[in-house]
Specification:
alpha/beta, Rossmann fold, 2 domains, 6 strands, globular
Amino acid sequence: MRLGIDLDGVVADFTAGWMRFYNAAYGTDLKVDDSKNWHDLVELTHFKDIAQFWDWSSDLEGRSVFWHLDAFPGAVEALQGLHDDGHDIVIITTKPRFAVDDTHDWVRRHGIPTEEIHITEDKWEIDCHVYLDDGPFVLPSLVEHRPDRTICRYARPWNRPVPGTITVHDFDEFREVVAALA
């Protein structure tokens, strides 16, 4: 099967990554547990809007914040296991333009087993059998445009259950969903 996998908040720990740089730059002590909402990267910081955040995060030690992110423990291994089981891993992520090259490099450096990386806001346009995403605005769009597909919501503090999705809390649960469908 084709598995459409989001990166930030699912495979890559975006929140810990930007907070690490923000704390170092501004002497704050933000922790991942402080983030409960999608827009906390503005609400927890001094930035007036998302454009200011993106401007700041576009050049951190010569690369965008996306280049510096750590993978969540076990995420890459889970994707490798799904790939070894015969599934195609299709990365579908949304990024600012400045992060496109860093995203491709991140996927390569972390050994994500994929031959497809799609950077788009309209993730539903990429046809997959199963989707895994954490975006509170993405999930309803996937349900609307791909009602015949399986859509898994990776439960995070910034999203809520969405009718038409299956909630998973980790990659073990996601692999169970995929195995049941296969």
